[in-house]
Each structure stands twice: as structure tokens, then as C-alpha cells.
Amino acid sequence: MTAISIVPVILSGGSGQRLWPVSREHYPKQLINLVSNRSMLQETAERLSDGRFADPLVICNDEHRFIIAEQLREIGVTPESIILEPIGRNTAPAAALAALVLAKKNPDAIMLLAPSDHVIEDRDRFLGALDIAVPAAEKGMLVTFGVTPDHPATGYGYIKKSGALDGAEGCFAIDHFAEKPDAKTAEQYHSAGTYLWNSGIFLFAAARYIEILEDRRPDIVSQCRRAVEGGRDDLDFFRPDERSFEACPAESIDYALMEGTTAGAVVPVDMGWNDLGSWAALWRLGEKDSNGNVRVGDVITKNVKGSYLRSDGPLVAAVGLKDVLVIATGDAVLVVSKNAVEDVRAVIEILKTEGRTEHLAHSRVYRPWGWYQTLDLGDRFQVKHLMVKASHGLSLQAHKHRAEHWVVVAGTARVTRGDEVITLNENESVFLPAGIKHRLENRAAKPLSVIEVQSGSYLGEDDIVRFEDEYGRD
Fold this sequence. Notes:
β26 and β27 (420-424) form a beta hairpin. The chain is α/β, with parallel strands linked by helices. The longest helix has 16 residues, at 123-138. The strands form seven sheets. Strands 1, 2, 3, 4, 6, 7, 8, 9, 10, 11 and 12 form an eleven-stranded mixed sheet that branches. Strands 20-21-22-30-25-28 form a six-stranded antiparallel sheet, with no helix packed on it. The chain folds into three domains: 6-274, Spore Coat Polysaccharide Biosynthesis Protein SpsA, Chain A, CATH 3.90.550; 279-351, no CATH class; 364-468, Sandwich (Jelly Rolls). The model has no long low-confidence stretch (mean pLDDT 94).
């Protein structure tokens, strides 16, 4: 075990489009319990939280900040910082933000750049590979981890390794990076024995990364440096300057840096890795019945083989199917053959073109105070279920176009209505006319459940004026 303290930099961006409809833009796959009773983000943070690791930096977008902070709190992980990207700019700028923040405190800090949505089944082998990589990183190498392939995958990029590196036992030079191949090329890569899956996990010294990136892509470094220098703290988060970061080119580390530097190295490792890039990957990882099916949730089958069937809501009944994937949520159902899983993203484009919203959010929408779920929606009315966490509350707000009626179904509510403060117990209700300032709070130790009935000419979420908000939202 290495004696130095490695700083995990956990990347939690992206929208996980290929795992729609469970993964949505506002609640992507890394925040969902897909392979265990914890989210992918939580699994990643726990994997990187023993004595060899410092507190992590997390890089995410603004929409997910409170969910991520809460999920980390649930598992007892206190991040060094949560950096909010104003816009996605791929991995090279994201790593630059983290490296510049870390280098202010310790230029020699060794940072481990790790996506938050990967499965690593053999943690010991992963940590062993990390021990091999650390001495190389301390010598100024930019180390990535190449996964030993166990099948000719077409959904992953590849790294072709070259000869062993002198003075860096277990590390190899990188011949080149290869894009996701077609089936024939994947077979060739697999049989060659010199190609590794590109895991997208990197280890390097913060200052060294900036030094090499500045030599090759000074435009990225200059914009990220401006973004950090012009940034500001916001509650427990750090916001880089928006205009500077938006002007930064979008590039992956592979293209911006690794493919053209002589300082690159790869450590091969067989660690049960999977990036959960498709529903077929969930089928491969899942526990199968005697017919080769993986069933999750309320699912029954008859004469079904080699399939993945998941319900996060209604009963799914499947008959006479083979090699298909059926995924049902409260508001959408996906049915796709195994050999077409890479085309799921095309559904997202159709939804966008048709002006729909099922790619953005589930019927249950998470907020820093809890969540709300739409139960019914019609002309001039909407019914929601609100769950307010213990010791949390909504902002003091008003709506121009709608009135609201709140009914407490569980717990005790503290309601501000204009100049009044009212306590509501179970089965009690209050009416809130359009335009009145109001707030819903839960000061008890148990969750509060409220049914909200909205009525009015416009019921959009943007019809809100906030006067006070403990979460710093406008």
C-alpha cells in the first residue's frame, strides 16, 4: 500500500442517455442504484475512501449539486470541494479545473481522475494497479489504466500498449488510442493481446498535468485558470467563472494530451470493470435465472430467454421473447433487442425533436429539500405529492399564475401564508391564493408528506419568485 495520500477527483457529469428511461438528464445513471443498494456515485466514493485517499473533489453540474452532496453525506464522505461546471467541456478541462484547485495547496498532489459511473468488482486488484501507478506518477508520468478485455466489445475505446517502461515496473508505453471499433475490428483487438479497454481512469501529479497540458493546449489551461481565479464559493460548492469556462474548448484527455505526449503510461489490470454504457452491460452483470434472464422489480415471464427485464413501477409481463431488454418506469417503457442497445440514444433525439420532456426528468423530481411527484395533470390543474425531509423546508416564494391547496397526509407542517404562520397536522389543509408569499417547512424528525393541488392559467415550474432560500437558489 502506498504511503502517499491520493486525491480522488470524481467526475459526475453526463446524462447517461444509453440507460434511458431509468437515467435522465436531471437524474443520470451515477445517481441511481443500478447494481447495489447504493448509487454508482456512492459506490465510487466508498471505493476511494480508505487510508490511502484524501477527501475527494467532485466535479458535477449545477443541476445535481444538492443530490450529490446529500448522497455523499448519507455514506459519511465529506468532499474537499464540489466544483460546479457551468457547462460540460469534456474531461481535459474538468481535470484542469481540479488540478488548478489542488495545485494552489500542493503542486505535488497526486490526483486520481475517476468517473462516477463505473463498476469495479475487484477492488483489491484496482488498488494493486494503483500502487503500481503511483511511483510513475511521482516521476512525472501521466498514467492511465487499461482493462484486460474478456470479450471483443464494440462499446469501448481501446489502448494499444507498447513496451515496458524502464524504471516503472508494471507500466507500459502507449502505442495509440483507438476509437470504439466495429465487430470485426474488436475481434482483431481481442485476439491480438496488446489492446486494452480504455477505462478513462487517470493518475498524475496536479502541477505536472497542467505543465504538459499548457505546452500542448495552452488555450484550455488559460481559460480554466481564468475560470478558477474568477470563481467563487457558494455554500459548500465552488463555482468557476461561467464566461471563462464556456470559452474553453471541449476536449477529452485522450485527444488533448495522452495521444501526443511521451509522458503517457498504461497499467494493465483485470478488475471486473464495466462502465455501464448500455442495458446489455446490466444484463451481463446481473444475476441470471435458469433461462439466462435478469429480472429486476415486479416482473413475470413465460418462455423468455437471455433477456433483461426491469420495472421501477408497474408490473411487467413478458411472453415468448429472446435476447430483448424491457425497462419500465412510471412514465416510460423501453423495449429493445440486445444487438440494438447502442441506438437507445436515438430515442432521446426523437423526444427532443418532438418537444417532449421524458428525457429530462422522471415523474419524481428531486430537490434539496426532498422531492415532488406529479400524480395528475390536466387543463388548468396539477396534483403533486411533496415529500419534505426532516428539518428541511421550501423557499419563501410566490406564484403569479397559480393558486395552491396543501393537504397534510403524514407528519406536521409549518406553513407561512402571508403574515400568518400556521401549524398543520395530518388531514388538515390550507389554501394559498395566487400572488401570496408562502413557505412549507418540516421542523420534525420524520418526513412530511403533502398533497398539493395547483390550479391556474399557467402551471410551469418557472412561475416562481423566491424571496428567501437556504439553498442559495435564485
